[in-house]
Amino acid sequence: MIDDAKKQAIKEEDLATVQRCLEGDINAFALLQKRYTGIVTSLIRRMVKNEEDVQDLVQETFIKAYKALPSFQSLYSFSSWLYRIASNNCIDFHRKKRVQTISLNMRSPSSEDEEEYEISDTDYTPDLRILDEEKKRCLDEAFAKLPENYKQIMKLRHEEDMDYVQISEKLNLPLGTVKAHLFRARKMLYEQLKQKKYLFTS
């Protein structure tokens, strides 16, 4: 059990690291990710059973946390804030799995979700169809800007539904490289969609 003094020291260290991130230190967030990846993974495993989904949700959690750092309030501990993001990410994942949907016939990958983007079938109108077409166009444009090696891995993961090991074997790449490329590709897509204000997250 960590005593109060240790907890306070960790909290202060985390806050200092967050501040470095906000000041432009591009390597600082890696320290937070290294510290909390194991704990976040354990949390998500309690909520999601499929290991491939778990790894994807872990990546998404840290991407969301990184992007939300400007809104982080130092009144709270970074760990509690991060766990809340991870928990909400899992809840959104299950909600998307349950909702009755219609396909938009688009297999473009996104930085936030491996599923096709979908909308409820209960209130579909021509206006929504126009909006969906715009979303698809933005996704296609963002995907086209990815490096070719990232495109290839994303297509294998999202279109051919291969798991990490299968991709690793097909492309003769280390498993860690496959995961790293997927993480970076999603992050690049997130950045582009954010600029276009087409982030399809809850």
What key phrases describe this protein's structure?
202 residues; mainly alpha; Arc Repressor Mutant, subunit A; two-stranded antiparallel ribbon; disordered C terminus
Through-space gap between termini: 35 Å
Using the alpha-carbon principal axes, give the shape: globular
CATH class of the largest domain: Mainly Alpha
Number of domains: 2
Query: Using DSSP, what is the number of strands?
Result: 2
Q: Note poorly predicted spans.
A: 99-131, 198-202
Give the biggest beta sheet.
2 strands, antiparallel
What's the name of the CATH homologous superfamily of the largest domain? Winged helix-like DNA-binding domain superfamily/Winged helix DNA-binding domain
| Average pLDDT, all residues | 76
Number of helices: 8
Listing every helix as H and every strand as E from the N terminus to the C terminus, the arrangement reads HHHHEEHHHH
Approximate strand percentage: under 5%
Oligomer: single chain
Please give the share of residues in helix. Answer: 55-70%
- By CATH, the topology of the largest domain is Arc Repressor Mutant, subunit A
Structural class: mainly alpha
Rg result: 18 Å
Please write out the topology.
Layout: H1 4-22, H2 28-45, H3 51-68, H4 78-98, E1 101-103, E2 118-120, H5 126-144, H6 148-158, H7 164-171, H8 175-195
Antiparallel strand pairs: 1-2
Helix pairs in contact: 1-2, 2-3, 2-4, 3-4, 5-8, 6-8, 7-8
